[in-house]
Structure formats: structure tokens, C-alpha cells
Amino acid sequence: MTDTDNTLPRAVVEAKDGRRYTLRPIQPSDAPSLMRGYQALSPQERWFRMLHAVPELSEAAAEAFCTPDLTRDFCLVLEGQDELAGEILGGARITGEHNGRDCEFSVSLRPEVRGLGLAQQALRMALQLAAAAGYQRAYGTISRDNRGMINLAVLLGFNIRQDPDDPACVIAEKTLTP
Ligand SMILES: CC(C)(COP(=O)(O)OP(=O)(O)OC[C@H]1O[C@@H](n2cnc3c(N)ncnc32)[C@H](O)[C@@H]1OP(=O)(O)O)[C@@H](O)C(=O)NCCC(=O)NCCS
User: Fold this and answer.
1) Residue 171: its pLDDT value, please?
2) Which mutation among 19, 151, 155, 170 tests ligand 1's pocket best, with the greatest number of atoms within 8 A of CB?
3) Which domain of life is it from (predicted)?
């Protein structure tokens, strides 16, 4: 994706406090803000996001994250306001598998804007894009300790089951319909 990419939609979403936020595709110039946002997560939240120890995002990792493979992946981010103007607040990502049927979701939000329904709206829109692109199943691996993410997945209609490969995690999965 380039900074002028217009192939994915921009949307305005309303938070629970009545504020309106722009939700748009991630772009390469978001990399420095992505790194700052990752540092704003607590160590446990970084673990929840990555499911292994990644104390900080390298520049290379952030740049790669900000240039998704648009033939398979979607990544939507929320734009910050006021003291977070110019920053991205986080958002939702869909990573498609080569089989064209399955895709993995991930979601993350800066602590300053939690509890406002923003992660839910970002993930809903990313899942709609995935369904429209023809993916039939979305899934994500979630730490058992991550009650917030498990609740969010249940709210969005995901079924939760034990991860057969890791007793510390569950798999959230959902059939997508266009
Ligand atoms: C999980 C995360 C994305 C939720 O972000 P958020 O914007 O606060 O979530 P929302 O406000 O959209 O919450 C939607 C619903 O999810 C559930 N939920 C979210 N956070 C919750 C929490 N801390 N405790 C309980 N339920 C929670 C609730 O059902 C909530 O609905 P409600 O507010 O009407 O009760 C955020 O906490 C985060 O970034 N965590 C760190 C990274 C992470 O764990 N990512 C997931 C990796 S799989």
C-alpha cells in the first residue's frame, strides 16, 4: 500500500463517548507511530498481542506491518485526536492464508482510548472486508488470561475453543458470510 492508496475504505466511527474517529487503511508513514503505540502497551499487553516476548517493535518490523500484502491482507487503523493527534491509536488486521479461505485477525488499541468500543468497530469492519474478499473463516489465537479480547471475540460471534497446541491459549473462530 502507498500513502495515496485509496482502494480500501475510510470510515468515521463513533466512540461511546460520542467522539468520532477516522478509521482508514494503514500506510507506510504510520511506522514510527506504530512503534510508539506498541511501547504504550504494558509488557503483558505486548505479550497478548504477539504471544511471545517482543519488548519493542524494530523499525523493520514496523515498516513491514505498515505495508501489508494488499492481495491478501487488510489493516485498518484509527487516527488520534487532541493529545494523540498525528498518532495512530491501533486498529484491526486480517492476514489471509494462501488457501484463500482462512484468515487470522489481530487487534490492538492504545490504552488511552480503551473501553470506547473502538476495537470492536475496527475489527467488525476488518471482518466485513475479509468476508467481502471471499474469506470463509476468521480465527485468532488468544491468551487464556486475555479476558478482554475473549469477551470481544464472543461479542462478535466467535466460538471459543481450547488451542490444541498450547494450553495457555484459546482459538476464536467464526464463519464469515459475505
Ligand atoms: C483487547 C483490546 C483490543 C480491546 O480494546 P477496546 O477498544 O477497549 O475494546 P472495546 O471498547 O471495543 O470493547 C468491546 C467489548 O469487548 C469486551 N472487552 C474489551 N475490553 C475488556 C476488558 N478489559 N474486560 C472485559 N471485557 C472487555 C467487552 O465485551 C466490550 O464490550 P462492553 O464495553 O460493551 O462491555 C485492548 O484491550 C487491547 O489492545 N489489548 C492489548 C492487545 C491485545 O490483547 N490484543 C488482542 C490480541 S489477540
Assistant:
1) 98
2) 151
3) Bacteria
What pLDDT does 7 receive?
A: 60
Which residue positions in the chain have pLDDT lower than 50?
A: 1-6
155 lines ligand 1 (CB under 6 A): yes
With a 6 Å cutoff on the Cβ, whether 117 touches ligand 1 is yes
Residue 1 falls inside a structural domain: no
pLDDT (0 to 100) of residue 5:
47
Euclidean distance between CA atoms 171 and 143, whole angstroms: 9
Specify the 3-state DSSP secondary structure of 103: strand
pLDDT value at residue 9: 75
Residues spanned by the domain of 46: 11-175
Give the span between the Cα atoms of 46 and 62, in whole angstroms: 14
Residue 121 forms part of a structural domain? yes
Tell me, yes or no, whether 2 lies in a domain. no
What pLDDT is recorded for position 40? Answer: 96
Q: Please name which of 118, 107, 123, 127 lies closest in space to residue 21, comparing C-alpha atoms.
A: 118
Instruction: Kindly give the number of the ligand 1 atom that is closest to the alpha carbon of 108.
Output: 39
Q: Is residue 29 one of the residues assigned to a domain?
A: yes
Over the stretch 16-29, which tens digit does the pLDDT of each residue have? 999 999 999 999 99
